Amino acid sequence: MATHLSVEDLEQRSRAAHEPHERTWWQIRWLLARGQTATAIAESTGYTRYWIGQIAKRSNAEGPDGMVNRQHTTSWRAPRMLSAQQQEELRAALAGPAPDGAKHWSCRAVADWMAARLGRPVAVQRGWEYLQRLQQSRQVPRPRHALADAAQQAAFKKKFARSSAP
Fold this sequence. Notes:
This protein is an all-alpha fold. About 60% of the residues lie in helices and about 0% in strands. The chain has two domains: about 5-75, no CATH class; about 85-135, no CATH class. The protein is built from nine helices and no strands. Helix 1 runs antiparallel to helix 2 (about 20-35).
C-alpha cells in the first residue's frame, strides 16, 4: 500500500467525509492501513474483497483524489458535445419550424441536427438532453380519451367547483 496519508489522517478523512460512499471508502482505506485483511474488512463493511482491492488500487494510483465518488462528478462536468456558439445556433433552430414539417421538434430531430453539425452520429438521448438543457422540452396538451363524454366531464367540473369553493 502506498502511504499518501498517515493512519490518523485516514481516520480523520473517513469521519469528515459527507458523501456516504466516500466515507466508507476512506474507512476501508483506514482499516487497510491499520493492517486489517480484505476478508475482515469485507465482513465489517459489506463490500466484497474484490471491491476493497479496487479501492486500494485507486488509492495507490491516485492518492486522496482517487477517493472521490465519480458518480457525482462525471456526467455534468463532461465536455459538452456542442460549443456555446453551436448551442445558440440550436436554440435559434428550435425557435423556428421543425424539420420535415413536423409540429414540434423531437429528440430524434435535435439529434439529427447535431449529427449534421458535428459530422458524426448522435444518440437520440443526446437530443433529449439538449432539449432539456435549452429548456425546450416538448409541451403538448394532455391526450384525451377517445370515449370520453364531454357532457359528463363538464357536469363533474361544475359540481367539483361548487364543492371546493371556500
